[in-house]
């Protein structure tokens, strides 16, 4: 059984580190209507914690994520969050896709930013099993 530690939690996001598997699970709760401030607060809160662990990847469960990410927030993510992940040794990002088409597009666009793609491998999945298998490969 894998030891796990919740490294960050707020109303929007729960981030758990799986010690044996060396990856983080970011679960977007969908409990409240997400806005720019909530998204950036959650992302920065989690990103500031990853350096304390030996994680190599992040599995992002966005199935309850209902927030179209603006171009400005996409740029912010690329310049503020990606470097924190890279400095912490994060090499892979696996996304479980949400049902809402607009959110899929905005999440995909965020991770297609040139800097993010050159520093981290990113792949999109419909099942957590496939995503975890890829993260661990």
Task: Provide an overview of this structure.
This protein has 137 residues and is of the alpha/beta class. It has a single domain (4-136), classed as 2-Layer Sandwich (Transcription Regulator spoIIAA), CATH 3.30.750. The chain is built from five helices and six strands. The chain has helices at residues 36-47, 71-87, 101-111, 114-119, 128-136, and strands at 4-9, 13-18, 23-28, 57-61, 92-96, 121-125. A six-stranded mixed sheet has the order 1-2-3-4-5-6. The longest helix has 17 residues, at 71-87.
Short description:
Helix content is 40%, strand content 24%. The chain is of the alpha/beta class and 137 residues long. It has one domain (4-136): Transcription Regulator spoIIAA, CATH 3.30.750.24.
Count of alpha and pi helical runs? 5
Mean pLDDT reading: 86
Structural class: alpha/beta
- Radius of gyration computed on alpha carbons: 14 Å
Q: Which runs of at least 5 residues are low in confidence (pLDDT < 50)? A: none
Strand order of the largest sheet: 1-2-3-4-5-6
- Quote the beta fraction: 15-25%
What is the C-level CATH assignment? Alpha Beta
CATH superfamily: STAS domain
**CATH fold naming:** Transcription Regulator spoIIAA
List keywords for this structure.
40% helix, Transcription Regulator spoIIAA, 5 helices, alpha/beta
How are the secondary structure elements laid out?
Elements: E1 4-9, E2 13-18, E3 23-28, H1 36-47, E4 57-61, H2 71-87, E5 92-96, H3 101-111, H4 114-119, E6 121-125, H5 128-136
Parallel strand pairs: 3-4, 4-5, 5-6
Antiparallel strand pairs: 1-2, 2-3
Helix pairs in contact: 1-2, 2-3
């Amino acid at each position: 059984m894998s030891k796990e530690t919740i490294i960050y939690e707020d109303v929007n996001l729960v981030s758990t580190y799986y010690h044996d598997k060396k990856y983080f699970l970011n679960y977007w709760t969908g409990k409240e209507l997400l806005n720019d401030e909530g998204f950036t607060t959650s992302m920065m809160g989690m990103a500031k914690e990853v350096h304390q662990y030996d994680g190599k990847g992040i599995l992002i469960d966005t199935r309850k994520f209902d927030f179209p990410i603006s171009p400005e927030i996409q740029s912010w993510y690329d310049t503020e969050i990606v470097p924190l992940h890279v400095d912490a040794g994060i090499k892979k990002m696996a996304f479980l896709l949400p049902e809402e088409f607009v959110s899929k597009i905005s999440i995909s666009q965020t991770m297609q930013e040139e800097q993010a793609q050159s520093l981290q491998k990113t792949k999109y999945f419909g099942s957590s099993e496939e995503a975890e298998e890829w993260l661990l490969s």
